[in-house]
Amino acid sequence: MKIAVFPGDGIGSEVTREAVRVLEALDLPGLTLFEGDVGAIAYHRHGHPLPQETLAMAKAADAILFGAVGDPSCDNLERHLRPEQAVLGLRSELGLFSNLRPATVFAGLEDMSGLRPELARTIDMLIVRELNGDVYFGDKGMRTTADGQREGWDMMSYSESEVRRIANSGFQAARKRSSRLCSVDKANVLETSQLWRDVVIETAAEYPDVELSHLYVDNAAMQLVKDPGQFDVILTGNLFGDILSDLASMCVGSIGLLASASLGERETDFGTFGLYEPIHGSAPDIAGQGKANPMATILSAAMMLRHSFGDEAQAARIEAAVAMALADGIRGGDLGGKLGTSAIGDAVLERL
Ligand SMILES: NC(=O)C1=CN([C@@H]2O[C@H](COP(=O)(O)OP(=O)(O)OC[C@H]3O[C@@H](n4cnc5c(N)ncnc54)[C@H](O)[C@@H]3O)[C@@H](O)[C@H]2O)C=CC1
Ligand SMILES: CC(C)CC(=O)C(=O)O
Ligand SMILES: [Mg+2]
Question: Which of 229, 281, 332 is nearest to 68 (CA)?
């Protein structure tokens, strides 16, 4: 079981350290971890945010545990050298088009939600976000127009096959849950979204057992806060999924709790090759202070065991340890408590 560990920048290395401790504590037979540089740290050491050696390491692994990238020291670099390009590059180079972001409220955290406790209690959803297309990967640029103004553009586009493969991921995920799928787009004004909606409806014919609904993204954001319990699986594009998942994180209490799996079509000897990361970024405002909540990354390691190594028992064991720690009142600053990153890691390990 070869796991490439890419801690990245800011709190990325702090939270990844705790997830690695958890993986090591499980005594998994044949577990091999190797570490690579991504993001600002890679730029400063090797001149590129995603060095060739890191990419080669990623391709040689069965799964990747990723922290986060991004650092103010790189704010003025050209876009292709910025740390964030490392995560986009890995997602596209490795064909990781299906991003699963579960959001469930943990017992004891109902009061920490941005929502009323009775609403928070109803949250148990999975956001299925397309990860290889949309404005992040379209043609983009900046120029000075004839009248001397600067103009920037990012092309939003999706091909039919890109929508179809993520729609299949969404329907399959819905089948494993309560068989309700809500597709989120902006088909009232965007051609991309009209195609999205058409293809999702066509794909639905293959899943007659799944109940399909549609929402425009602005309404979906409002509904997430008004009545989050109505959602089971949300299927959406790269940009909308990015924004809605940060919103969902505060509905369950903190961005420090939301894990993710990024999957493609490659199968290994153990399961589906994937990259696993918290949904948050490198949090420069708290980096280096030992304040970050590592639970999202620990839960990402659980998703790795489930999807890439077919080890449901160990995945559930990690999730139970996190749930138990939260039920016992283990809290970092993000949840109104005082515990630091390694103390939270210790608390999860004790319960494991
Ligand atoms: N996948 C990735 O590597 C991502 C990278 N980024 C990058 O991260 C950098 C910072 O971006 P922001 O917009 O500030 O988003 P962010 O997610 O890093 O932080 C947003 C807020 O949430 C807090 N926060 C995040 N994770 C936390 C945790 N585990 N525990 C406690 N508090 C936590 C931060 O302190 C901050 O106040 C940027 O360079 C951005 O591009 C952002 C999102 C994802
Ligand atoms: C660099 C960003 C596109 C990463 C991000 O915000 C995310 O994937 O949630
Ligand atoms: Mg994001």
Answer: 281
CA distance 138 to 129: 17
- Contact (Cβ atoms closer than 8 angstroms) between residue 50 and residue 20: no
Full-prediction pTM beyond 0.95? yes
For CATH 3.40.718.10, the residue range(s) in the chain are 1-99+259-352, 110-252
Helix 160-176, helix 191-204: angle, nearest 10: 50
Rounded mean pLDDT, 238-245: 98
CATH H superfamily, domain 1-99+259-352: Isopropylmalate Dehydrogenase (3.40.718.10)
The answer to whether 165 is annotated as binding is no
Question: 280 CB less than 6 Å from ligand 1?
Answer: yes
Residue 188 Cα distances to 162, 164, 203, 238, angstroms: 20, 20, 20, 18
Is 91 labelled as part of a ligand binding site?
A: yes
C-alpha distances in Å from residue 127, one per residue of 117, 164, 173, 174, 246: 21, 16, 10, 10, 11
pLDDT score for 298 = 99
| Ligand 1 neighbourhood includes 18 CB (under 6 angstroms) | no
Residue 154 designated active-site: no
ipTM: 0.99
DSSP-assigned beta bridge partners for residue 66: 6
With a 6 Å cutoff on the Cβ, whether 331 touches ligand 1 is no
Q: Is 110-252 CATH 3.90.1150.10?
A: no
Tally of helices (H runs) and strands (E runs) in the chain: 12, 12
